[in-house]
């Protein structure tokens, strides 16, 4: 027999959390679609579903508890709670994997193998939590294994991104590319902070699952106060971690965008060659720079500061190419095979 008086504090608890999540959801949607719409990326829109389903879940739990588990409304609120709980966990873990891979942070595209990992993660989480909501007492071990696996792959992908950003920052500093050093350093700081919060989130979730769910089931069933304290602990830790993650990666001006082409299982970032930069004057005349090094040329018209690579040209002096040119085997002197001119004979600059 359920004591309805004991359930009142659960109703108030989830009503408060539902209100907080709803306020944060409203701010996130306003910031993503209106205040900073020009900086919004696909990741920000996907992250919106996490907040929406979490808000609905807390509200549905409060309404479910208010029925004292009786009547027809109890069944409908129970179905709504189960659906939103499953969808929330599916989207939160999918977003954590996407952030760990650097999607819309250090690059816009994922490789086919990475898309497969994200899709399999999304499907496994959805099926796992759907089965857990049917038989929670028998599938707690499955839930624990799934959380440990997600913890491993998200931490691994995040550390790969951090290593790639460190190499990129070092290459930028050595090449004296001052225009991209601040955004690279900022993204590196964001990923490092994300890794710390990721540890906090998964450790708190695993602690709750191992100690409270699997370790002390009899004590939880016997004491309403103990169970209430566990719910407060779980919801508070989850809210703090997700709020910080979303604040780190919210839609705002993060500086000039750059892309790291290869971040994954075969992580490699090629160091940049030393080069100098120069602006093209009006009339698109090429500057004569007396240096044996490549030159980055900024187009003066319609230059997009958020995507600088769309308006860049690389000028390579021919003298520099001549020093590294390895000629192919020459044919004998023949009318059908005239001797090709040597690279050193070409004096005009080359523009790529």
Order of helices and strands: HHHHHHHHEEEHE
Shape: elongated
Q: Fraction of residues in helices? A: 55-70%
Q: Which value, in Å, is the CA radius of gyration?
A: 28 Å
Number of domains: 2
Written account of the structure:
The chain is mostly helical and 352 residues long. The chain has two domains: 245 residues, Rhopdopsin 7-helix transmembrane proteins (Up-down Bundle), CATH 1.20.1070; 65 residues, no CATH class. 62% of the residues lie in helices and 4% in strands. It has a four-stranded mixed β-sheet with strand order 1-2-3-4. Helix 1 runs parallel beside helix 8. The longest helix is centred in the middle third of the chain and has 36 residues. The protein is elongated, with a radius of gyration of 28 Å. The C terminus is likely disordered.
Summarize the structure.
This protein folds into 2 domains: 4-248, Rhopdopsin 7-helix transmembrane proteins; 276-328 and 340-351, no CATH class.
Key terms:
about 350 residues, mainly alpha, Rhopdopsin 7-helix transmembrane proteins, 9 helices
Task: List strands and helices in order, with pairings.
Elements: H1 4-35, H2 42-66, H3 71-100, H4 112-134, H5 140-175, H6 181-215, H7 217-222, H8 224-248, E1 276-279, E2 295-298, E3 312-316, H9 318-324, E4 350-351
Parallel strand pairs: 1-2
Antiparallel strand pairs: 2-3, 3-4
């Amino acid at each position: 027999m359920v004591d309805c008086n004991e359930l009142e504090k659960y109703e108030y608890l989830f009503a408060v959390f539902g209100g907080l999540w709803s306020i944060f959801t409203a701010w996130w949607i306003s910031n993503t679609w209106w205040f900073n719409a020009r900086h919004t990326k696909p990741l920000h829109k996907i992250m919106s579903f996490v907040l929406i389903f979490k808000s609905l879940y807390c509200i549905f739990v409060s309404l479910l508890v208010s029925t004292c588990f009786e009547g027809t409304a109890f069944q409908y609120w129970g179905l709504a709670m189960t659906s939103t709980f499953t969808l929330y966990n599916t989207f939160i873990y999918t977003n954590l994997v996407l952030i760990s891979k650097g999607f819309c942070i250090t690059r816009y595209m994922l490789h086919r193998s990475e898309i497969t990992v994200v899709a399999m993660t999304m499907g496994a989480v959805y099926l796992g939590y759907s089965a857990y909501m049917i038989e929670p007492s028998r599938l707690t071990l499955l839930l624990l294994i799934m959380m440990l696996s997600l913890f491993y792959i998200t931490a691994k992908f995040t550390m790969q991104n951090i290593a790639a950003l460190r190499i990129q920052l070092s290459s930028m500093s050595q090449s004296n590319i001052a225009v991209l050093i601040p955004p690279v350093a900022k993204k590196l700081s964001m990923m490092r902070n994300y890794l710390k919060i990721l540890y906090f989130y998964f450790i708190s979730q695993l602690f709750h699952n191992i100690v409270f769910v699997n370790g002390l089931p009899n004590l939880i069933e016997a004491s309403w106060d103990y169970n209430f304290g566990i719910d407060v602990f779980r919801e508070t830790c989850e809210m703090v971690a997700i709020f910080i993650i979303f604040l780190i990666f919210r839609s705002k001006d993060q500086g000039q965008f750059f892309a790291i082409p290869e971040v994954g299982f075969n992580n490699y970032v090629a160091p940049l060659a030393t080069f100098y930069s120069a602006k093209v004057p009006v009339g698109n005349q090429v500057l004569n720079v007396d240096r044996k090094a490549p030159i980055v040329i900024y187009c003066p018209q319609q230059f997009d500061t958020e995507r600088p690579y769309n308006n860049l040209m690389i000028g390579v002096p021919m003298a520099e190419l001549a020093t590294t040119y390895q000629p192919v085997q020459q044919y004998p002197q023949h009318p059908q095979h005239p001797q090709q001119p040597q690279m050193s004979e070409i004096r005009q600059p080359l523009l790529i």
